[in-house]
Description:
Layout: H1 3-24, H2 49-59, H3 66-73, E1 81-83, H4 87-93, H5 101-115, E2 118-123, E3 126-133, H6 136-145, H7 151-164
Antiparallel strand pairs: 1-3, 2-3
Helix pairs in contact: 4-5
Amino acid sequence: MNVRQAEARKSKIEKRASELRAQLWPEVTDQSLWNRKQRKGFTTLPRTMPLILRIMDDLSNGKPISSVYVSLWGRVFDNCVVTINSPREMAFEAGFSGQRSESTWSSRIKILCELGFIDTRPGASGPFTYILIWNPYHVIKKYYKEKKVPQNQYNALFQRALDIGASDLEDEI
């Protein structure tokens, strides 16, 4: 599918979704919704993120890392670098509170780094001031090849990626 065909398909899908919304929720206005094209404060999120997060948590040996990853993703721009000014704030965003909140957050950052989903560099805010977010599809594909991601989870991710037109799992890594 070329770019022109993809745009036409996307336009058709958006039109159908708008028509469906108008039929099911006729009272809803555009202003009452958060359209990423019309509002500030949005980030691009892979449509496969729920599957990615499940696989990540399964890889982390009982120490869930998905809330930390999502909080990082919520702060990233297209350059894939997040600057952490307040580890305490990041810990709170990820759902950690109390005396050990920052150390718990730091331990989950270390796991994300060890698993290869992110890379870190030190700075004024500590050892995790700068965080680079790698392409999660590539990381998961690597673990799948090592037989550390179950077939059913990888197949579900692969199928959903195909459904949305993401070809990252087909990349040579």
